[in-house]
């Protein structure tokens, strides 16, 4: 099949390229923009079955005047002393003056309840921020306008103020975010071009992945937008960035798989057309299987209860599908026309290097497979043990620079009030049959929940225009986005609040902490479903590729062990050495996307090469040695490029970006350099012919020709 495909593509290379140009132009010009299906609606992030979502919906109906977001003006004396009655009156005047300015998208300007901290250290003004969506740029402008007006209003008053809240924090860190992602984007291009230049010493080979991925990204965004319109799907604003990273990751992998094999066949004496046909024949099945495994892994995200991941899966699957077709048609067509010039101006590629590092590594694997398997396995298990100490961290603010206005204002606020003042836990009381709540019911309920576990302060109850609904805001003793607060809400506070509801009523707990508590539950549920299902489907693809039931078992075990080792290594560094309270709660899914899904490529490439060498008549130990020698450089180059791209995130001054960068980089390094280059080949050599049971995947096809090897020194077992 792949030989016929190779002959077709090479024989009609110009037609293939012309077809791609026409198809790309048609898709780009006729499909909608990705922004047309982009949504920032966080209500769909969690299913309606979760209590925090039900509480949010009830609050929006019962308190329609509730703003999209809140900015908190935190006022204190410049000399650090307690606020005087005159100061408190001056803050009231500030609120009225700001309200009179009619700053767009602001409302409320409430100085209670209660506005003054018990220790008189600060006084607050709560400002509602209204916009169609919580990420509307108008909210950022509203905060900037507030800050610009506060300074002149408090001039010569002896008071100073800062604006806190999520929107204010984003304003302060917007440049940090943009600079971090700009650095990553530039570093990705530089790394890909630079490393491929070092490997092939050719600007053409170096630019090929960048150009191809650019074309595929344009086509993919159009197809994803069209699919979103057709099936009424919405995607997150993060999708464009994730698509870019995924396409550069797998695109570079597949192009390198092809170029390394093409160079090998040219060295063996094939002409440029034959070399590409053989390359597509040998690598086409590997690329297709690898892409199939990644597509399956992404589509399994449809099983996620978190809406963000459910919409992410199909979009990424489309991207990988387009990259697969590109790698088997457009890339071979272009390279077959370029021929040896794809490696221009270098001539070093014509000579197979002697006594290379990969040759020596292959020799070690072939001669000492038991030692290599044990050493690499022990390393992975030791790192995986770190998972036992894993804690999820939901506090994004702690990872940002702490010298910004919003960070300092938040610190002042938490010193004056309970720790949860910045994100109150919202408790709603409503009657079961829609009848009116009595004052007695509301007051008794408010008094009871004020004594619930972990509550530092309780604000006076608020009645809705709907007489059947009331709300009490609780300020927790703990940081509202800490693990302690999330565990408190999930395990103790909710139970106490539910028990406090008078007969004939029901209580719902909402707010930021409750949302994160539900996300925590949903995240745990999703991982417990996604990982086993993905592992099973990837094993099925491997079984079809290898015609074996044994090899897929230890290959999937290796992938899952590598996932655990990656997460464990991150826990050791950030929770252990750096003393962080946890690692970002999104990390396990991020590792699933970039370590489990994409890292499987390296396993498939290596095991396919081991099978190929076995079919050439080599015994298991010798096949492992030759396989590592020839596939090792491809795996190493692809892994180094992808790992290096993510490692650049370590330069970002934001903790969760550093964690993501380290985790994915170390995960790819472990996938490429420990699992694929040592653990899997060594295990395959040890298991021997039984690795291919019940098929005969290691036997040369009857009557099949023996492909001449590349003229290189072959490692002997």
From TrEMBL:
<dbReference type="GO" id="GO:0005886">
    <property type="term" value="C:plasma membrane"/>
</dbReference>
<feature type="transmembrane region" description="Helical">
    <location>
        <begin position="527"/>
        <end position="546"/>
    </location>
</feature>
<feature type="transmembrane region" description="Helical">
    <location>
        <begin position="370"/>
        <end position="390"/>
    </location>
</feature>
<keyword id="KW-0472">Membrane</keyword>
<dbReference type="InterPro" id="IPR000731">
    <property type="entry name" value="SSD"/>
</dbReference>
<feature type="transmembrane region" description="Helical">
    <location>
        <begin position="283"/>
        <end position="309"/>
    </location>
</feature>
<keyword id="KW-1133">Transmembrane helix</keyword>
<dbReference type="Pfam" id="PF03176">
    <property type="entry name" value="MMPL"/>
</dbReference>
<protein>
    <submittedName>
        <fullName>Putative drug exporter of the RND superfamily</fullName>
    </submittedName>
</protein>
<feature type="domain" description="SSD">
    <location>
        <begin position="206"/>
        <end position="337"/>
    </location>
</feature>
<feature type="transmembrane region" description="Helical">
    <location>
        <begin position="635"/>
        <end position="656"/>
    </location>
</feature>
<feature type="transmembrane region" description="Helical">
    <location>
        <begin position="239"/>
        <end position="262"/>
    </location>
</feature>
<feature type="transmembrane region" description="Helical">
    <location>
        <begin position="180"/>
        <end position="200"/>
    </location>
</feature>
<feature type="transmembrane region" description="Helical">
    <location>
        <begin position="585"/>
        <end position="605"/>
    </location>
</feature>
<feature type="transmembrane region" description="Helical">
    <location>
        <begin position="662"/>
        <end position="687"/>
    </location>
</feature>
<dbReference type="InterPro" id="IPR050545">
    <property type="entry name" value="Mycobact_MmpL"/>
</dbReference>
<feature type="transmembrane region" description="Helical">
    <location>
        <begin position="12"/>
        <end position="31"/>
    </location>
</feature>
<comment type="similarity">
    <text>Belongs to the resistance-nodulation-cell division (RND) (TC 2.A.6) family. MmpL subfamily.</text>
</comment>
<feature type="transmembrane region" description="Helical">
    <location>
        <begin position="315"/>
        <end position="343"/>
    </location>
</feature>
<feature type="domain" description="SSD">
    <location>
        <begin position="555"/>
        <end position="685"/>
    </location>
</feature>
<feature type="transmembrane region" description="Helical">
    <location>
        <begin position="553"/>
        <end position="573"/>
    </location>
</feature>
<keyword id="KW-0812">Transmembrane</keyword>
<feature type="transmembrane region" description="Helical">
    <location>
        <begin position="207"/>
        <end position="227"/>
    </location>
</feature>
<keyword id="KW-1003">Cell membrane</keyword>
<feature type="region of interest" description="Disordered">
    <location>
        <begin position="698"/>
        <end position="717"/>
    </location>
</feature>
<dbReference type="InterPro" id="IPR004869">
    <property type="entry name" value="MMPL_dom"/>
</dbReference>
